[in-house]
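User: Can you model how flavin-adenine dinucleotide sits in this protein?
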Amino acid sequence: MNAPVEAFTIAILGEGPEAWLAALAMARTVPVARRPVTVLTDPDAPVSSPAVALHPSVTDWHNALRLDDATLVNRAAGAFSFGAALTGWTGPEQTWFNPFSGFGAPIGPVPFYPIALKLRAAGVPMRLSNFSLAALAAQTNRFQVPDRAPGSVLSTCRHGLHADAHGLAKLLRESALAAGVVEEQGTIRDIEWAPDGAVTALRLDGDRRLEAGLWLDASGPAARLASRLQANRRDDWSGLLPCDRRLQARVRTVGTPPPYRHLETMAQGVIEHLPLHGSTALSAWFDASEIDDESVHLKVRDAAGAERLEGLTIEPFRPGRAVEPWVANCVALGEAAMQLEPLGPGAFHFARTALQRLLELMPGEGGSEAVRTEFNRRAAEEQDHARDFVLAHYRLNARQGEPFWDAARQGAVTPGLAHRREVFEARGIVPLEDEEPLEADAWLNLFDEHGLVPRHAGPLVAGLDLDTLAGHAEKVRTFMLGALRTMPSHEDTLLSLRVAKGQLESTIESVSLAPPGRGEDRTARK
Amino acid sequence: MNVLIVGGGTAGWMSAAALSRLLPPRTIDITLVESEQIGTVGVGEATVPHIRFFNQRLGFDEADFIARTGATFKLGIEFRDWARKGDAYLHPFGAYGEPLDGVPFHQAWLQARRLGLAGDLPRYSLPVRAAAADRFRPPDPDPEAIGSTYSYAYQFDALRYAAFLRAHAERRGVRRVEGRITDTELDGESGFVTAVTLEDGRRLEADLFIDCSGFRGLLIEQALETGYENWQHWLPCDRAWAAPCPADGPPPPYTRATALEAGWAWRIPLQHRVGNGHVYASDFIDDDAAQDALLAQMEHPPSDAPRQLRFVTGKRRRQWHRNVVAIGLASGFLEPLESTSIHLIQLAIGYLVEHFPDPDFDPVCAAEFNRIMDLEYERIRDFLVLHYHATEREDTAFWRHMKHLDIPDSLRARMALFRERGVVTPYRHGMFLDASWYAVYFGQRVTPAAPDPAAVGLDAERLKTHLERLDQGIGEAVEAMPPHAEYLDGLLARPRGAAA
Ligand SMILES: Cc1cc2nc3c(=O)[nH]c(=O)nc-3n(C[C@H](O)[C@H](O)[C@H](O)COP(=O)(O)OP(=O)(O)OC[C@H]3O[C@@H](n4cnc5c(N)ncnc54)[C@H](O)[C@@H]3O)c2cc1C
Ligand SMILES: Cc1cc2nc3c(=O)[nH]c(=O)nc-3n(C[C@H](O)[C@H](O)[C@H](O)COP(=O)(O)OP(=O)(O)OC[C@H]3O[C@@H](n4cnc5c(N)ncnc54)[C@H](O)[C@@H]3O)c2cc1C
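Assistant: Here's the modeled complex, given as structure tokens:
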């Protein structure tokens, strides 16, 4: 058979899970015999994040990659998640929960939110998350993988997963290598350019040379290649988002990880707890002009209730995105394309959606002009929406009397966020556009918990009397509590997956806490 | 809240029927005013599948509706002579084929065609082949069955549909007033419409006015001077001749749109007659020649004298301005090439319910309604322009003009993407899904330079088997369908459920 051979080979830069995910996705779509894939890893590269949060749609993507929850639980210290608990944002000591899934149930054409608004106006305390099975389960440390049976309460939940970044990278790497991906270790010495600005080859240490037709840069914030393409300008968000440094570490834990991540505020920033099996990954984002590294270190240590933090790194954090993540023949993925605090989905999620877009728009023999333009257009739209979601948490925060938080409330608001807020405050609905990283309910819950109150609940709920509404809410709640009662604990679910694998202790990778070959506190500064 | 619907054409009665059904009773009081003397536009017979959900939500019984409106079933639109004279394709209500190993079907098909393994694209569409065989049956409810891979719409008599809706709306308490509006009163401060006055001096007040007065835009334009965005530079057809005629044989389950020298002609088969029309650009052909062209391609002489209609393609700058919401022809006009007008009415009603004004008329609701309706209008506009622009015809000044047209940037980017890689980016708001774009692109000879690299990687044997299996499955499913006329007769013979 004389089918035409692919026009190019692919080289991927990076060593973390994003790079190996990219490699695996590429090798799974076109056999490497037709389109070779090389991953260029750099032994001197800075450490990537200790853990990643897989957003629900990531788990949907498992199938294509032939991965499953059980493998991640066993091999990447995986723990499940129903969403995020947020403390201190809406008031001192206040916690609210934003599940991956929605709330309540409609009455015919009347959505749940206007129902809640009308009941609340009549004095009934209505918290949206109390009508989310996922939130109720998270609070009581229960977890069961949602089914898809229509009509089942469990099918209203969506789940994500936290994984050890090193374990996940290793897992993806094994699969990628098995699928024929080649790994090359090396440091970039020089770049060879084509006259049109495309990268034709990289010169590596030891006089080696790597050629490729398409380059994917998943090398993290350093963007080892993407940052070198002159046209790759950045849309800088430091004027909008206050944090400019990030701490990452982990602590050992015993017992079952909670089935959610936790985002708590401190006086000068945010701390994230991402629970894994046997450890918790900790990150903090803060304003370096407000607090020094050592103080943050101590705060995070205290927040974790630990004696010491392991694998500590502290580095600059630059919120913003590449104006064009795809320039010439180089596509930036993950933190090489955007840095943003993960109050919504994190960097791994955006690497994943970028890959999905790239697969959809992969240049063929027809060229890459239109697909590149489209990729960049859609990436920009998605990333700006993601930024607006994060921005909303800051602008609406209720921590009073602290310079960092007072200033965060005051700053400018993007037109996109202003529009969403305006429509919400008018009507209790959230407009969605084409490339949305989050569902409408995530925004509704955010605005609602932060105390925004729609002026009007819409015309449809006006036709339903309070008794009907209260009865409905009660029924939904009873239904969910019933489902909650029979839901296994997160611990039992994790155990059953380990047992299902049939090789309990033997195959569980001992996940090394410190990244390989790396001393502690490497980048910490006083 | 008092609502006055101005106009009793399809838009007015659809709005009255839907709002009286969807909005809680006792919260609104609806009156509709219409003038028999002025009458309705009287055309608007071909629809898209969404009309079924409209009918369902209103609780209509399908057989009853079919019987009362002289309706037939519609699987798509056949386009003749668009890219080249002699070409014909059907834009079906359904996607082609099924994906293979995650590769979209049309990409797999492109690869198979390169390898000489594939038949023509329409072979892999059930509705296309059913339409070609004049067969019809509603889709199989089992989503796994190949017989579930399409949808359908109706072709009906617009006047009868309005009467059908009227009966329904009046049963639900809508008050109908006959009379001609001669005057409109505005509030001096807010500029809101406060009342309209009829020829006989009666005065009708309301809080919300829904302007369904047709092209004239009695309130939105004549009273509020909202302004109009003219799109004639992209879609230059501005007139139509319409004439019914008796049918030559049983009705086929599709509408036909034949490209003529300076426009195109529709043929819409109903139970009792055929609707014909010629939409043309008066800059390129005169009225008499246009009428002749219509009659020349009709199967029978007209049963009524041809009627002329004039229109300006475009939309109101704001569809909702102050306390006036324009729906139907009062809101704008897009030629009926893809049967979109009634659907736009339906969309406007849905978004109006979602953003229904509160007593204070929050301007945010109007702005949001306008934002969404603008997107819908613009995206349909792009899809229509595609039909004219994707042509090789240069046989008349009109077609040369359309072929070399300076098209909207949004369409240019979409076409470039399709030409380069065969991709259609889906919209959140925008009625035409990717399958519709594929149908028109391929039907009008816009083909991608090369398939998706993932399709190139597919195993040839698997590809071949996949296509053969589809071809055969569709063939068997079509074979099992009854002729359209037979299905229709069976439905009409059934004892009818009362209209809801
Ligand atoms: C994993 C996790 C999941 C969580 N899920 C939920 C959850 O599903 N539901 C939940 O209520 N809390 C949830 N929380 C928050 C946590 O349980 C709160 O600390 C707790 O609700 C606070 O209760 P409180 O009595 O201390 O005070 P308050 O927060 O002051 O609450 C007092 C009462 O008012 C209600 N209330 C509070 N805020 C609102 C509001 N905006 N609108 C209407 N009523 C309101 C509360 O439900 C409660 O009945 C979650 C926390 C975590 C860590
Ligand atoms: C040539 C052509 C072909 C078409 N084909 C299709 C098609 O196939 N499919 C499709 O979906 N759409 C089609 N349309 C569009 C479709 O006809 C309209 O969308 C639909 O009929 C709605 O019209 P309307 O109710 O807005 O206006 P009209 O039918 O014009 O109704 C206007 C109403 O307002 C009343 N009115 C006006 N002025 C006054 C006054 N001063 N006082 C009192 N009452 C007043 C009139 O009496 C009338 O009741 C076509 C349109 C044209 C022009």
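A couple of observations from the model: Chain A touches chain B through 46 residues (CB under 8 Å). Residues A 85, 94-95, 97, 125-127, 129-130, 135-136, 138-139, 260, 449 surround flavin-adenine dinucleotide (ligand 1) (CB under 6 Å).
User: Helpful, thanks.
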